[in-house]
Amino acid sequence: MICLRGVTKTYEMGRFQPVAALRSIDLDIDRGEFVVITGRSGAGKTALLNVMAGLAKPTSGSVTIDGVDLSCLSDRQLSLLRNRTMGFVFQFPSLLASLSVLHNVMLPASLTSESGGDCRERAYELLATVGLRDRLTSHPRQLSAGQQQRVVIARALINRPEILLADEPSSDLDEETEAGIMTLFGRIHAETGVTIALVTHAKELVAYGTRHVVMASGELAAGIPAREPQD
Fold first, then answer.
1. In a domain, 109, yes or no
2. Does residue 152 contact residue 198 with C-beta atoms inside 8 Å?
3. Domain at 159, CATH number
4. Which tens digit of pLDDT belongs to each residue from 36-91?
5. For residues 157 and 87, is the Cβ–Cβ distance under 8 A?
6. What gap in Å lies between CA 100 and CA 220, rounded to an integer?
7. At 122, is the secondary structure helix, strand, or coil?
8. 102 domain residue, yes or no
9. d(C-alpha 70, C-alpha 78), whole Å
10. Which structural domain, as residue segments, surrounds residue 217?
11. Which of 22, 78, 117, 140 is the most buried (most CB within 10 A)?
12. What's this model's pTM, rounded to 2 decimal places?
């Protein structure tokens, strides 16, 4: 599903030495996996997620998604691929304050050919799934941090993506809310089979995935099977 071969990402820093965020990464993520990627700050986790999504171009190496080499796509084709194939959950919710919960969730679907009625029904279903069926008309400022992140997860799923990419989705949450968000990820994975790549510095979240990948200094340090989540 996701294949990285010899991926290096170097950032030029003007008169300072270039910074190598990724160093010769070889990584395969199979369809239906839930991969949790851990590492300390600066390990290259976010850079890895960005090249997977085509948000950053690797300095060298290749990234393919379901057999499609991202380097062969135009900016427009990349945008269409992301919209149709990928869902994104970031550390900070980035919801539009002027829109209701319902319309925030529906927003990515406005770029597809799905009818308004079908899109609205899909948004209703997703908000019920994340436990926010009663907050359709609320605005982001009226929600807790955990509720806002649930809206983001619903928004990420509105176009039925095959891949869900999550960058530190629970780092700004208290322990109880974090557990609720991660349990939600696990349930969505089990029910839909969506492929998930989630990066985090919290080693205790490894339990929610099906595979664990460790990063250090821009390299893959190890990979071990994750234990089953606790009930």
1. yes
2. no
3. 3.40.50.300
4. 999 998 899 999 999 999 999 999 999 999 999 999 999 999 999 998 899 999 88
5. yes
6. 41
7. helix
8. yes
9. 7
10. 34-50+83-225
11. 22
12. 0.89
